[in-house]
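Q: A reviewer asked whether we had any structural model of the full assembly, not just the individual parts. We don't, so I'm hoping you can provide one. Inputs are below.
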Amino acid sequence: MDTEHDTQHEEADARPVLEAPDIARVLTRIAHEIVERAKGADDVVLLGIPTRGVFLARRLADKLEEITDRKIPVGSLDITMYRDDLRMHPPRALARTEIPGDGIDGRLVVLVDDVLFSGRTIRAALDALNDIGRPRAVQLAVLVDRGHRELPIRADYVGKNLPTSLRETVKVQLAEEDGRDTVLLGAKRTSPGAPR
Amino acid sequence: MSKILIRGARVLGGEPQDVLIDGETIEAVGTGLSAEGAEVVEADGKVLLPGLVDLHTHLREPGREDSETVLTGTRAAASGGFTAVFAMANTFPVADTAGVVEQVYRLGREHGYCDVQPIGAVTVGLEGKKLAELGAMHESAAGVTVFSDDGKCVDDAVIMRRALEYVKAFGGVVAQHAQEPRLTEGAQMNEGVVSAELGLGGWPAVAEESIIARDVLLAEHVGSRVHICHLSTAGSVEIVRWAKSRGIDVTAEVTPHHLLLTDELVRSYNPVYKVNPPLRTERDVTALREALADGTIDIVATDHAPHPHEDKDCEWAAAAMGMVGLETALSVVQQTMVETGLLDWAGVADRMSVKPAAIGGAAGHGRPVSAGEPANLTLVDTAYRGSVDPAGFASRSRNTPYEGRELPGRVTHTWLRGKATLVDGKLA
Amino acid sequence: MQRHLISAADLTRDDAVLILDTAEEMARVADRPIKKLPTLRGRTIVNLFFEDSTRTRISFEAAEKRLSADVINFTAKGSSVSKGESLKDTAQTLEAMGVDAVVIRHGASGAPYRLATSDWIDAAVINAGDGTHQHPTQALLDAFTMRRRLVGRDAGLGQDLSGKRITIVGDVLHSRVARSNVDLLHTLGAEVTLVAPPTLVPVGVESWPCEISYDLDSTLSKSDAVMMLRVQRERMNAAFFPTEREYSRRYGLDGERMAKMPEHAIVMHPGPMVRGMEITAEVADSERCTVVEQVANGVSIRMAVLYLLLGGNEPAVTHTRTEEK
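A: Here is a predicted structure for the entire assembly that you could use as a starting point for your response.
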């Protein structure tokens, strides 16, 4: 969510910075890091942030299940109603919040998103979590960290650190939504604005 | 009083002629009349009509001077080209005694903008129970000949019969506001497709038609004449047409707004369109225009009904019923009847001056434009086009449904017995 | 730009489906320990109720509070209105207090429309029922209830009510619920039949996008949902029908009649029910009756409407009628 998927900002001369095999590899690595840092990941709950964070969370869950041979609870967390820029746009259609059956109380919640940018989405996600329950701890996994944070937020697991300028766009495409796996770096056609 | 020469006026829409006024009287009508010693008004092809007569005006005085007074109402009348108006009886107190009608009559005379002929109430307090002193009002200085409970229907058949009979003694006429009260309880607008959708209480056509049918039969039975106020439906037209064909002595009026507007406008929920009887359908409008053209409907009457701003600046149900009409009547008739080819200007003079004067017995009004007649005249710039701006109204109230609407024609001059009450569109 | 919800007839199919879909997500908030969202923080909404309606007011209030709006309740009784203050003055007074939206219930048909189209106030206007005109959020919650029951909670997402046969029974003449439902259900592709004694059907109904029947029994077997409207006993005195007993016998829904409905068909009622008049206790308390569900769904629908009208810098709901003008 923390990126721009709108077609109005379709980047010119976008070039891939991650291809499908890279994405698969970094997700495997993140899964291993989670198991390592969460000491077996036996209380992990993965919550993806719609739209693409949800697909990444499911993929991570599959990898974790392979590694731990246990069922990993996975769900989604829509942050639309918690955004701090609601008044700047028309209301957005809501996405699904699906909390796994056993809830999140006392568990290690790993938020999963595609791109970490300003940090505002994660701030909203932390607020949303607060209304749902009280996790033991919250961690953040992202496929790409492109910098330019506006809030004191950092990711615990990063697929790729990608230094960018504000004039550039980062676009993640995933097979479930876009028909292919890739991360594209392009130049914004319109004048640069504040990151959303 | 000096002489006035109106030069090059199309009398009743005919070829340009000169009209010379001397004092209160028309001295001559012809071409090339001498202007010697006369103030000249260049008519420039404008249409000259006999001063208009409105058989149905609400002047609101006494009692509701916040919406209109005899002064402001007669100024509005002069602006609209009228030289005589009949003032309805639903004032506070009700004009049901000689005292009230004489007061209104005298105020009209004093102000001098337009003759005011009071209409007397048929029943005491418009309550429909007991006849008012119709004879005393007739014999008063006001000389009342038209009686009406307008605003309310004389719904009791016996009271209506007696009133019709009683006024025969002095040549009076009862003007009926045809509205069956039980069928119109809670009525807010015409009952039909639009009311069903808007959820507003329906005012069915049959509530008007059933009363008209009853009253023409009563008039026939007792050999009286009856006048129908603000006829608004195609069905009413059929009944009046039938009654006339039977020789029943019935006359009928239609308002300008019923000739132009339909209930579709109510979709705006803007109470400026709230009026009684309500705006009807396109089919009714067509029937009313045809009936006015063929004489089934005898006259146009404004039902000028001023209301203060706050009585219209509210939700529909809370709003007062009625529209001002004196200052836009002729323009609406020009648009709906003249420009559609249904009436010529002689026809307009007949429906808006000659016939209403005859029905109401307004002496000196509705006369031919010819030598020796009283100089009650109206000059109309029929080529004018402009949109209605209520801020310019002489009436104290602004509740017009035509605000911003483009209407043709403009009255530029009005003379009441030779005295100019309106000059170049400005009140004298 | 239209920021108001005045009539169900103003909603396009896509608008209506968006509202229903959004309400489906809102409904899930009710299952959470903290039933609150921060979305309308700092927005002030006044519930301006000129008519008593505790149910509707409470439903709106719950929706507003769940979205964290500041709520002001204004009821006509005991207020300046009972001292003769006009709608205009009341509305302007409230707006001067910085109100972002007015939820209005008024006995006069068209009062919300007037409030929205006059130059009296700038706030968004949401119609919570006006006279015998419209009650759009009621129609939306009814459609939401039907979609959940007849199509499915998740299967219904993005779907309308195409092909569903809905029968609305009772005092159509005096019912804003019937008008709103006919408009919205038609927009959503349902086939609507109104059933009532001829006295309780408005003149001019032939222009409505629905069928009219005077015979309840012949419509029941062809109905996916039967919505019973409240019939006030006073109507009897105005000769709309002879007696309560005759009305119930001809137009009331009892167990025997309910048995003629298809297995899957539901019974709806906007409440408050007049048991023994239009509906028997047996039907009202049956599994097929959705009255209580409708109340719960009302909160979700009103949250969705408030979010979509007030949640952004401009409304997400378009309005066909005003755009055509």
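A: Points you may want to mention in the reply: Helices of chain A lie at 20-37, 52-68, 120-132, 175-178. The radius of gyration of chain A is 16 Å.
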